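Appendix B. Chain record.
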Amino acid sequence: MLSVQAECITGIVPDPIVDSITVDIAGNVTVCWQGVADPDIDYYTIFTLNPITSANDSINVVPSPGNCFTLPALNNSEIQAVILGVRAVDICGNPSNLGVNYHNTIHLKNTVDICEATIDLEWNPYDDFNSGLNVSYDVFLSINSGPYVLMGVTTDTIFSYPGIINGFTYDFFVRGIENNGGGPMSSSSNDIQINSVNFLKDPQFNYLYTATVIDSQLIEVQFYVDTAADISHYNITRSTSLTGTYEEIAVIPAFPGMNPMITYQDDAVSANNTHYFYKAETINSCGDLKFTSNIGKTIWLKVESDGIGAKNTLTLTNYGDWFGGEDVYEIYRAIGGIWETSPIASLSPFLDTLLYYDHIIDVTEGDGEFCYKVVAKERNVAHVGGLIPASSTSNESCVYHAPLLYVPNAFMPLSPRNYEFKPVLTFSDPEGYLMQIYNRWGQLIFETKDMNEGWNGSFNNSGEMSQVDSYVYLIKFIAANGEDYSRRGVVSLLR
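Structure tokens predicted for this chain:
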């Protein structure tokens, strides 16, 4: 004879208490419950709430005393929240209530901001814990299939992850824990995977290679860029002081296949009057500044002449700012417009400003014009792209020295020394030179336009020797600055 429990006779079956519903990494959904304390329970029916018809659809049964059921993947857990409920049925076929103990999985979804290189996560709250709504959420991340790492804890249902690297793969899931993280029950969301191949690739470098003076109204700036990055354009900015305001002076569009060494010539400068500071800004297609280069500071040279001291004083500023730093500063000089092939000095690196004195007491040739320029060279270090050490040239600065004329007052044509009358003249234009000798009756007896030729005392240096007497000389010449000079005086011819 079949034995029947009293509860089975009454038909009253207690509702099973669902503890949680969770999703694993593979997308399987597991619901667990507290078994009903009734020996008459035969099995548990697993229901889902049909999202279209709102009907209670039975999907499986679990024999008592089982208390968990796993719904295999391909259950749309990655598309939407999965809703499962549990119903107890006793051996008499009496069921517990239906629809009162449904639990929703945490459905995790995301949006991406390619301009900010961030992934924004959002999920529905887990509001089915028996302990209430005081739920804490742990956010886990795996990068490129690596181990999952806890990235943050929040009581909110949103989370933002910045610093996405183009080409990396990111997997996220969220775990809700009841009692503000104290447990014991928890529920994990679906796993979402984001491949960042469509994110903007940030530049890895933007190096201002050099800023160099071409002439007083032209400075050339070169910078080396990462052409593999997703860049819209480059802004060239300029200032007259290191900490001053940098103004945008040019926009260089980026395009596929462009040369990574970009050259720009700034023709709105006055390089003889000051130095300039340059920076290059890298702007991506979202209009965001992604990389600012180092500073390129030109060398400014100023020269002052000291005719009495027979020297030129050079004031020069340093170059900045190379990755390798400066190795040497070479000073070059031009006399009368002709540049010397070797530097007159090689200086060690210095800070800010340096004075250099060029003593010219032994320089007698030329037209009185002295020009200088400084070439700074970078120290040899390993550069991105295998770049060779850079160099930078200053502006050219010139000074003029007034001509110096020394005229002897006597000479002796027949003596072994002091046998000709020849003035000593420096810093004048040889093309404008003229010397004439007159006797006491005003007769022109010698003339030359060669400043290296003197008067030997004879008529036109080849005729009859002149008598002992005083003679009038007239010397004319043109200085380097174009000014005409003349001197008239008397020289005595002696025996």
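Further analysis of this model is presented in Appendix C.
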